[in-house]
Amino acid sequence: MTFLLRIFLAAAALVAAGAYPAGALEISGTFIQGGLATGKVEPGTKLTLDGQPVAVAPNGSFIIGFGRKAKAKMVLRAEPPEGQLEERELAIEKRKYKIQRIDGLPQRKVSPTKPEDLARIKSDQIQIAEVRKRTTLKTFFDTGFMWPVEGRISGVYGSQRILNGKPRSPHNGVDVAAPRGTPVKTMGDGIVALVNEDMFFTGKTVMIDHGLGLTSVYIHMDKTTVKEGDFVTKGTQIGTVGATGRATGPHLHWGVSWFKTALDPALLVGPQKTGK
Ligand SMILES: [Zn+2]
Q1: CATH assignment of 99-268?
Q2: What does the alpha-carbon distance between residue 15 and residue 31 come to, in Å, rounded to a whole number?
Q3: Fewest 10 Å CB contacts: which of 55, 228, 241, 264?
Q4: Domain residue spans in the chain?
Q5: pLDDT tens digit string along 120-137?
Q6: How far is ligand 1, taken at its centre, from the CA of residue 275, in Å?
Q7: How far is the CA of 249 from the centre of ligand 1 (A)?
């Protein structure tokens, strides 16, 4: 075996394990559509993913996410303050998504036409988008993630949705069915970035900022138990399961985003402890 071939095989083995060879640029994670990777570069490095700037914390940590339709190959480019420019090609595994039909939703929540509903939807979308624009230069996500509530999975990430017979945007989170009043916990450490008691589609809504553009959202809750600006640690109760907004029964819709890119929350945590 030639020396070069040996190097190639060693690199291929690392890629299969979900890690890329360590150099100045380190990265590991789930290289699949909906997945998330974290890494380290030399502090002060200019980092881009497919040409888009990636925030780097003062200690050199960074985080990147891959969307529902992420391309098969993405390029991470690191330009350290001194030293050599590094480019890494990331191979992103493709996924197949389900089709989910939900009937029996109030027509007003599927095809809103009333001006006051449309105005609320717009205002809700702006508030949510503002949170997803934030770049808090903190790595609260370092302490890891947990299921916010355990129960029957009634909706998975990425499904194409047909609501009352009409095609609608794909499902961008995980639905966990649980009795009304079940405590909902934050999936990880972070700052409470939004608490809204009455959004049109999402009802009682809480968003947490986990740093560097990673946010989580918890919707349809019956009650919220935190306020904006609170710092919460993984497992802190933030509300209870409900059916507010566009929901047919009590469940938690749990979403995770890297800036505007919706990720698959289920990829961040292991199986549920209760084995559901
Ligand atoms: Zn949902």
Answers
A1: 2.70.70.10
A2: 9
A3: 228
A4: 3-91, 99-268
A5: 999 999 999 999 999 999
A6: 21
A7: 11
According to the CATH classification, is domain 3-91 in 2.60.40? Answer: yes
- 176 alpha carbon – ligand 1 mean position (Å): 8
pLDDT of residue 111: 86
Per-residue pLDDT tens over the stretch 59-116: 999 999 999 999 999 999 999 988 889 999 999 999 999 999 988 888 888 888 899 9
Taking alpha carbons only, the member of 197, 210, 198, 212 closest to residue 255 is 210
Q: pTM (2 decimals)?
A: 0.88
Question: Does the fold of domain 99-268 match that of domain 3-91?
Answer: no
Measured in Å, residue 244 CA sits from the centre of ligand 1 at: 12
Q: State the distance from the centre of ligand 1 to the C-alpha of 97, rounded, in angstroms.
A: 15
Answer whether 240's CB lies under 8 Å from 247's CB: no
